[in-house]
Specification:
Elements (H helix, E strand, L loop, with lengths): L5 E2 L5 E2 L4 H14 L7 H5 L5 H12 L10 H14 L3 H8 L4 H26 L6 H5 L7 H20 L4 E2 L2 E7 L4 E7 L2 E2 L17
Antiparallel strand pairs: 1-2, 3-6, 4-5
Helix pairs in contact: 4-5, 5-6
This protein binds a DNA duplex through helix 3 and helix 6.
Pfam family, one: Myb_DNA-binding
GO molecular function: transcription cis-regulatory region binding
Keywords: DNA-binding, Nucleus, Repeat, Transcription, Transcription regulation
DNA sequence: AAAGTAGCCAACCGCCTAGAT
DNA sequence: CATCTAGGCGGTTGGCTACTT
């Protein structure tokens, strides 16, 4: 997952950090701080450049650094902040508290970007469903299979009842809120007009809950 | 089981800004 | 002012892992 270590032409080591290097850097910074990153590797006994040391410390070694899975609240906050601030990852990470800018950036590109883009696309295609980045992405777009299926089932249950009663939906507005083991999910969907009998079967789970 | 592919994340690169001289 | 240096930031990449064919 990390770059193979090698020594460049200037005698500077690059690539993945070893445990020994991590220990040296951690011990040095915890004892002396980091008044000068450029000089630090020399005094810490590292064959790295200062930039590399700083990056390793900021993204991996510094205390109170939060790692691991992102909570729903964090995801929502990132989406909201990205909407407000754009790609200012350091500012976003700062407001999250405990996450590095690199980590937030990676998480955005790996997970969140797709959800926001998907929501926008769906919104523009559906016409009747008023889903957009501002009012939905921050609270919805959590396309775990179980959750999508859950909402799909929930909505199907509602529509089945209406079909049984031979009703069409005009000015349908409903609010659903439910929880799964992993997170809570709140969704608010409004439609101007909705023809139940034009609903087509879905072959893609991404589109299931958003028709 | 092997090969191919996509997803993910740690690390690097290059640019920008602020502060010192 | 101009120049230099260091730190910070965002974009990009290398390569491992997991998944698919």
């Amino acid at each position: 997952m990390v770059r193979t270590p090698f020594i460049d032409k200037n005698g500077i080591k690059r690539g993945a950090w070893s445990e020994d290097e991590d220990n040296k850097l951690r011990a040095f910074v915890e004892r002396f701080g980091h008044p000068n990153w450029r000089q630090l590797p020399k005094y810490a006994g590292l064959m790295r450049c200062g930039k590399s040391c700083r990056l390793r410390w900021m993204n991996y070694l510094r205390p109170n650094l939060k790692k691991g899975n992102y909570s729903l609240e964090e995801d929502q906050l990132i989406i909201k902040l990205h909407n407000e601030l754009g790609n200012r990852w350091s500012a976003i990470a700062e407001k999250l508290g405990g996450r590095s800018d690199n980590d937030v950036k990676n998480h955005w590109h790996a997970h969140l970007k797709k959800r926001v883009r998907f929501t926008n696309t769906n919104s523009s295609q559906s016409g009747s469903c008023q889903l957009n980045e501002q009012n939905v992405a921050a609270t919805l777009t959590y396309p775990e299979v179980s959750s999508s299926d859950h909402l799909y089932s929930l909505f199907n249950g509602l529509t089945d009842n209406l079909i049984e009663q031979n009703q069409s939906i005009e000015q349908l507005s409903f609010f659903t809120s439910f929880e799964t083991d992993s997170f809570s999910w709140t969704n608010n969907i409004e439609t101007e007009s909705f023809d139940l009998f034009s609903i087509q079967p879905f072959d893609n789970f991404w589109t299931k809950p958003f028709f």
